[in-house]
Amino acid sequence: MTGALAAILFVLSLSWTIARADSSPAPTPTPTEQPDPCGETDLLATLNRPTVGFSACAVKPHTLLAEAGYAVEINTGSTPAINTTYPQTFSRFGFRKNLELDVLGPAFDQTSSGGTTTSGSSDSGVGIKYEFYHDDKNVAALDGLVTFPTGSGAYTAGGPGETINLDASHAITDHLGAGVTIGFASLAGTTLAGEQRRFWTVLPSAVLTYNWASRYQTYFEYYAQTRLRPDGGQRHAIDGGLQFLATPSLEIDFEAGHTQTDFAQSHYYGFGLGVKF
Questions:
Q1: To which H or E segment does residue 129 belong?
Q2: Is the pTM of the predicted complex or chain greater than 0.90?
Q3: Could you tell me the domains of the chain?
Q4: pLDDT above 50 (res 4)
Q5: Contact 257, 267 (CB under 8 A)
Q6: Percentage, residues of the chain above pLDDT 90
Q7: Which positions ≥6 away from 161 have C-beta within 8 Å?
Q8: If you ran DSSP here, which 8-state letter would residue 232 be given?
Q9: Percent helix, strand, coil in the chain (nearest 5)?
Q10: Tens digit of pLDDT for each residue in 92-131?
């Protein structure tokens, strides 16, 4: 866990240094009948990545938001392994006001353990998000995601998966925000005895974000999973990172985290981007 915490602290200290160098004030929003905390052009508020929880902000109409990333996870449990995942694509299209359509993956995975390397692709899916409420400080949305067993080898769930998320966010101050996602999922999986079955699991997450300057944002997140497989298992994790808005249409991020399950612990680091078209 020490390595992951050190990486998170490094990201936070880097963001503080950058913020001191960038003292430009944030632009003043144009008044509207009902202020929108997601903004018309606020890419940092709308992106799902790099957090595990989902943003409550739907993509604006006739806008395409492409998210991608690269991550390395180092398992330090009884069976040490290194897993690399990329490009972690998630494409989101603003179909109409407060409604977006989503396409997930696939991603390429490669695992090295005990001198053996395994590679393959993960499952793909489609989704939809509906932003059903917002005022000047709060946003709430529902989104659904369906995955299909299109992956290969050890990287497919072996059956379809369905997830429904309730997403909410609140602007605590002009710079500090909080968000939660509570997911309910019906997934396919394999028991420790090798039996393929379906199971239900809950996926809660909570995140704090802070805009250090007009183009920089840091975050700290906790997330969990109540069941990892049909016969049990749990996951608890923390992560943190830095997001940089290079242009109004391009976001770059760096992140690190630590995960603990009933069998193993791991830490990971990665980077990615979000591009708005």
A1: strand 124-134
A2: no
A3: 2-276 (2.40.160.40)
A4: no
A5: yes
A6: 77
A7: 123, 125, 145, 146, 147, 185, 186, 187, 188
A8: B
A9: 10, 55, 35
A10: 999 999 999 999 999 999 999 988 999 999 999 999 999 9
